[in-house]
Amino acid sequence: MAARLFLRSAFRAAKTCRAAPAPALSRGMAAGGIPTDEEQATGMEKIIMTALKDGKDPYSMLKPKEYAGSKEDPHVVPSITSQRIVGCVCEEDNTAVVWFWLHEGEAQRCPSCGSHYKMVSHELPH
Ligand SMILES: [Zn+2]
């Protein structure tokens, strides 16, 4: 009984007194709120966030693009040196990987399935 009376009076009190409008929430550091990821990132994290905004993927963090593997559309393999070891899963269900060296220059073919691979130079941003 007492609880019901308390609830009723609390409901009336809430109905009659109007609360001041709440100020708009702001996360920005300039507004004194919690800084966003862009505002608090420094160093390598900031470099990566800036590059991703520009549509670049300097550390190959995103899913690689798919290529047909033909002579006209070879698989592009980025490398920071003049050669790189490539593993080709020739068919989707294969359990063995065919490994071979890919060198700078013309596109090379997988010795097993014949897919074309082309190495492109890739520079890390630091
Ligand atoms: Zn292959």
Automatic annotation (TrEMBL):
First-listed, main subcellular location of the protein, grouped into a coarse class: mitochondrion
GO cellular component: mitochondrial inner membrane; respiratory chain complex IV
Subcellular location: Mitochondrion inner membrane
Protein name (record): Cytochrome c oxidase subunit 5B, mitochondrial
Coiled coil ranges: none
Keywords on record: Acetylation, Membrane, Metal-binding, Mitochondrion, Mitochondrion inner membrane, Transit peptide, Zinc
Residue sites binding Zn(2+) per the record: 88, 90, 110, 113
Record flagged with keyword Zinc: yes
Family matches, as PANTHER family: CYTOCHROME C OXIDASE SUBUNIT 5B, MITOCHONDRIAL
GO biological process, one term: mitochondrial electron transport, cytochrome c to oxygen
Organism: Eleginops maclovinus
Highest taxon of source: Eukaryota
Classification via InterPro entries: Cyt_c_oxidase_su5b, Cyt_c_oxidase_su5b_sf
SUPFAM superfamilies associated with the record: Rubredoxin-like
Listed GO MF terms: metal ion binding
